[in-house]
Amino acid sequence: MTPSIFTIPAGESFVDALARQLLDETVGDPLTLADFLILLPTRRACRALQEGFLRASQGRPLLLPRLQPLGDEDDELEGLADELDLPPIIPSLRRHLLLTRLVLGQSGGAMTPEQAARLADELGRLLDQVQTEQLSFRQLERLVPAELARHWQITLDFLNILTEHWPAILAEQGWSDGAARRVAALSRRAEQWAATPPDFPVIAAGSTGSLPATARLLATIARLPRGRLVLPGLDRRLSADEQREIDHTHPQYALMKLVQSLDLHPAAVPLWPGCRESPRAVWVAEALRPAGTTEIWRLLPIKAANEAFADVERLDCPGPREEAAVVALMMRATLEEPGRTAALVTPDRGLARRVAAELERFGVEIDDSAGRPLEVTPPGSFLALTARMVADEFAPHALLAALKHPLAVGGLPPGEFRALVRLLERHALRGPRPGRGIAGLVALCGDEPGLLAWLEQMQRLTAGLTAACAAPAISLANLVAAHLALVEELTANHEGERQIWLGEAGRAAFSFMGALADAADALAPLAGRHYPGLLRQLMAAVTVRPAFGNHPRLAIWGPLEARLQQADLLILGGLNEGVWPPEPAPDPWMSRPMRQSFGLAPPERRIGLAAHDFAQGICAPKVALTRAARSGGAPTVPSRWLLRLDALLQRSRWRQADWLSWAATIDQPARLIEVGPPAPAPPVAARPRTLPATAIELWMRDPYGLYAQRILALRALDPIDADPAARDYGKAVHKAMELFVRGLPPGPLPVDALERLLDAGRIALERIKARPGLWAFWWPRFRSIAGWMVALEAKRRPYLRQSFVEIKGELVLPGPAGPFTVTATADRIDRLADGSLALIDYKTGAPPSSKEVAAGFAPQLPLEAMIAEAGGFAEIGPTAVSELWFWRLKGGATGGEQRPAGGDIPGLILAAESGLTELIRRFDDPKTPYEARPHPDFAPKYSDYGHLARVQEWAAGDEGSEE
Question: Cα Rg for the chain, rounded, in angstroms?
Fold first, then answer.
């Protein structure tokens, strides 16, 4: 019997053309349409055809035909397999966990459950491929080249899971793999219909027949007395020579195999009634013709080709952000024309999410019909974060990530819960890591009764999962139960409503956790600490898809669903190599020649299918092609199809509106306001009357910094879970020097001086010992410093009478607004043999230069000398200062260096006094502002307040870049 086969050409809306013709055929008898059975590629294609019937009937009530999907992963063939009495499909999570258990057993404990789950996923993918291609694992033994035998044996050991253990497990439990069941269902349906044709019309539409079982069923339907096969975008112009040249990367490869299996030439396949071929489709086919036949391009009329692409725009955007902004702007512009529609078609889910986010700025809400991974939805991320929080023993980052999640309210009003979390952060999580568990947090919270009561409640809520995660071996079911109890309590609002299960993502998370609880017995007991990693790996396979599009005129489609429908404007986005088409996925099990010998399709088959989807999309009436020229900081390569079009059309530029500049204009303000440095001038009564010598330097270099620190009383928060930084190391070294010098007896240096200093260092650096990496870095430096210090101390001892360390002093100076007190804590003051004083300032970083000291921008030592000579250090009394030293304790090869402050000491003291007196006089004037960095050349290298002063907005050049 001659096959009944048609094609709906590229450029036509497939579902609209199909629906329109079937309504025309059954116009006299509306009941006839209900007799039809239409097989489509996916569930979403079925929904698209339903909408096509609605459009074609202009909203009239209809009895629709039966619509069944052929290849959806979760559809179970809409009852087809049940009719044929096939074993039920094993639930995907149970299969994943069973394979994970087998992998763990095969690895002999060398893998974590998370790693085993990842490998089990790859095993499941290979199993599906083999079953879909209807191959046998018995062929594996003969694939091994001699030189690969040893490595291949390792692979075979793992594949024994599929060849020996897995079939026995399925038989024992009465399950079947989804791929095998679908293949069996399709094959048996083809056999039944071939033997006994159905007495109702059957149409198979939209499938390319790329899988063997599907191709056989399609061929059977084409030969049925009342069957028809409708192919998407068949190129009817391919000659016999060109057909021999095409390979898996060609868009017509799968269709040609199907047509050839029916003993037909493409030219013999008629168009579906009411359809006509688009002129652009002819030229797209030319651009994508087999590489070995492209010499014909030299003979083609290029002018006619360019005319066919008159309604195609191409935009090469600088980066992904600009591409998303341009696409969103195009889609929003479409809404200005009543009734017009637009759709973005892309395999790049990141681009899809960015476009959806960009559209929100216009008040347009749109869903990516391809869905989002469960782990990036609010419920999925909260499940992952709470598991990690408990398994990490409430480490600061994990704890804050979970408790600052929007779903976390813990039975309290949201504002009250957030306030408690912020209070906990300030008291316990800023700075070095607290002790383990909630008990470690309680120890740092002092006498905050509200916070302590809340932490006690949190301890009760998390007790179950805490105990489960600490267990050396526990069932997955117990872990899931404890986890569910925690998240339901943490997400219950003050009215008791559990918010985590609300919405589409919440329902998907609920189904996932329920399925995980049901399948948990498939996995052997595991160490509780491995639960978070296993959970994330299992969630990675779950996609949350919107039930319905939430915009009537805009859509974001994946390439497969776009194959069967169109919009007034179709935007093909993400047209870069590695994205569209995608990079062939690496096979962890077989090399390319081994796959070919085994009978598996090469990875390039996906490229051919992607090429077909591209060819379908670009033939729409109005099209925009977009790509990002750079991604992740690196240049990208345009999609091979764009390069072919450029070569065919001999174009260097495409028609395009000025979308990029329009998109950039959205974020440009109407006018630019020049911002100058801040210069607050608070009343004199609010200005400080006492400052330490270290703050005088900040007062001179950056008065605004002093204003923020001393008047606004702003303090920078310590980093969360902070490692002891250079500042902490400097404090520890100062403490060690203090302990060492205080413990030295008068007279010559003791013989055990070095050991005494090292002991002092061990005491001062005690906190760093908890961080082995930091200890390994800082302790060798301190040992070097200690050696240098002891050698220098031995030289100085004969000339010293007494040493004072960390000694406090102050001096009161007159000012227009009243007395002003300058205080100081000197690192070390030595009384020399001649009775004068030597002031020493320890520096673990670079000391100020002599130029900065002389200019008055590093006044600490001169001010300390001024206080000493005036008798401000009560333990010493008024004494002349003869030496000012910076001791740089840097470690390394030299250990340290001694550097004089420079200049004439009496002159430095006099300059420091007069400079401070002038500062007091000026800032006692209420009109004097606290300017930000009035002397750029002497601005502080680091400041906690540069971002408040908005230095980068007004500073010239790259000044302030360290902020």
Answer: 38
